Amino acid sequence: MPNPSEQSSCLVLENFIGGKFVPCRTHIDSYDPSVGEVYCRVPDSGAPEVEAAVAAAKEAFPGWSARSPEQRAQVLNKLADLLDANVEEFAQAESRDQGKTVTFARTVDIPRSAYNFRFFASSLLHHTNDCSQMDHMGCLHYTIRCPVGVAGLISPWNLPLYLLTWKIAPAIAAGNTVVAKPSEMTSVTAWMMCKLMQQAGVPPGVVNIVFGTGPKAGDALVGHPDVPLVSFTGSTATAQYITERSAPYCKKLSLELGGKNPAIIFADADLDRCIETTVRSSFSNQGEICLCTSRIYVEGSIYSEFLERFVAAAKKWKTGAPSDPGNDNGALISKEHLEKVRSFVALAKSEGGTVHCGEGVDQLHLPERNAKGYFMPATVISGISDSSRVMQEEIFGPVTCVSSFHSEEEAVSKGNGVRYGLAATVWSRDVGKVHRMARKIQAGLVWTNCWLVRDLNLPFGGMKNSGVGREGGKDSYHFFTEVKTVTVKH
Ligand code: NAD
User: Fold this and answer.
1) Cα–Cα distance between 184 and 204 in angstroms, integer?
2) Ligand 1 atom at minimal distance to the Cα of residue 234
3) Which of 1, 127, 220, 483 has the highest count of CB atoms within 10 angstroms of its CB?
């Protein structure tokens, strides 16, 4: 297994098509965000590469879909075992490619990628279909589910292998074959996983990975007439484009998109737990998780106490070299993204907001090697109007804004006052209040007195501009299969 973290020369990736590594004629530079230098070259694939991958996937489909669920599950479990056995190499590579800390990759990204395969291998074996009798008509109705065919899977850069496997695992477990396109900014662990595919006994053509940019490789995949289904995770703007692009083919779409997630904190909350968790929910993975908290609404009577304690806790959230186990955050994905995130802090200041800690307030002490990396400290802002772009738009960095509310109704109205609806956290010891809020908050996921606790059996996804459809357990099975209703008359 090559370990990109230890290679000094530039790593050159190849596409994985029909079970083989296939070189590409042109490449894109990929940066190590913690040092700001190119260290890898990613295939700049386009329509011809996608065409070859779709052809391989089509050829593999009859054989793979004819296997029993147990036979497919065996292959997925083997893949999970192989990922588990190589956690360290994958964690080092994910950190170097994305900028996140090795600790985060080792404890979250890679174990969860392995678990995605293990979970869907098992989940697949437990679905049942519907049956209904109509004796007066002499009929029995029942449903069957069949794999859709070649699935197009497109994933983003923030949790590279984690989100890619979240799609590949249910798609192939259900009997589809896939053509996947990871983000061009974070392709290395997907490429490493291709070697494991061979070892796990994934038949050639069942999983094809085509590397490249969205407008070239992604567009060719979305626009391919023989790809009837697209599962996309990424930004709302790209999803809007994909929806239009796939409309002429009436494709099945699952869209998991951005968020502007509120934390709503009532005066009766357990503040110790709430502050510890809300610091994590705001800043984990450099704030580059679609589920991260970016608007914190605190009940007026505890606002000052909360802000003081929250800022003190945020100041302890350490940012620096991703390999240092003492750091909570590493580097942001790119120079452009760092500048975008910083521009929101500048905008907040220009609108009269107060920056309590982080950007422009606290100095980062970085090792010399990381001096040109894309680092930004955990930043807390207050005093911004709800209509500000800072409070309305997804920042996707280590920045969170604190504001107050004075009634349950106001908390609901502020929480829902954005175009997104992905996740929310609600903090209160009053069970009735928690239930009322969960009903009224417009979000696909409402965590009360916790954050990011997931059961993969349950639906995951957002409403409003945060997505269309749900994935997870039964929902993934439904998305990656077509249901047919069969009626038998005797
Ligand atoms: P992005 O939309 O720029 O890119 C996502 C993927 O789409 C990449 O692989 C990219 O190459 C591809 N792409 C871009 N243009 C395309 C096109 N025209 N046709 C086909 N594919 C195209 O998003 P990003 O910047 O990589 O990721 C960050 C975004 O993802 C944030 O908005 C974040 O909230 C969101 N996200 C959502 C979830 C979720 O589960 N809801 C999870 C993680 C990230």
Assistant:
1) 23
2) 30
3) 220
CATH code, residues 11-258+466-489: 3.40.605.10
The CA 468 to ligand 1 mean position distance, Å, reads: 14
Q: Could you say which of 256, 288, 394, 471 is catalytic?
A: 256
Tokens 């595919």 locate to 197
**Sign of dihedral through CA atoms 452, 177, 484, 125?**
negative
Q: Whose CA is nearest to atom 23 of ligand 1?
A: 234
Question: Per-residue pLDDT for 6 more than 70?
Answer: no
pLDDT surpasses 70 at 8: no
Eight-state DSSP code of residue 5: G
Cβ of 181 below 6 Å from ligand 1 = yes
- Per-residue pLDDT tens over the stretch 393-448: 999 999 999 999 999 999 999 999 999 999 999 999 999 999 999 999 999 999 99
Distance 279 CA to ligand 1 centre (A): 25
Does the beta carbon of 218 lie inside 6 Å of ligand 1? yes
Query: Are both 11-258+466-489 and 261-448 of the same fold?
Result: no
Verify whether ligand 1 is closer than 6 Å to residue 45 (CB atom): no
Active site residue 59: no
Strands (E), 157-299: 177-181, 207-209, 229-233, 252-256, 261-265, 293-299
* Domains of the chain by residue range: 11-258+466-489, 261-448
Range list of β-strands (E), 33-130: 37-43
Q: Of the residues 42, 216, 238, which should be mutated to test ligand 1's pocket, given the most ligand atoms within 8 Å of the CB?
A: 238
**Residue nearest atom 11 in ligand 1 by C-alpha distance:** 214
Query: Which residues have C-beta within 8 Å of that of residue 171, sequence separation ≥ 6?
Result: 151, 153, 178, 231, 480
> Is 180 within 8 Å of 210 (Cβ atoms)?
yes
Q: Is residue 246 within 6 Å of ligand 1 at its C-beta?
A: no
- Confidence (pLDDT) at 490: 87
- CB-ligand 1 contact for 177 (6 Å cutoff): no
pLDDT in tens, 134-189: 999 999 999 999 999 999 999 999 999 999 999 999 999 999 999 999 999 999 99
pLDDT tens digit string along 204-214?
Answer: 999 999 999 99
Q: Residue 4 pLDDT > 70, yes or no?
A: no
Per CATH, the homologous superfamily of domain 261-448 is Aldehyde Dehydrogenase; Chain A, domain 2 (3.40.309.10)
Is 376 in contact with 338 (CB distance < 8 Å)?
A: yes
* 291 Cβ closer than 6 Å to some ligand 1 atom: no
CA 213 – CA 389 distance, rounded (Å): 28
Going from the Cα of 137 to the center of ligand 1, the distance in angstroms, rounded, reads: 50
Q: List, in sequence order, every beta strand (DSSP E) within 198-349.
A: 207-209, 229-233, 252-256, 261-265, 293-299
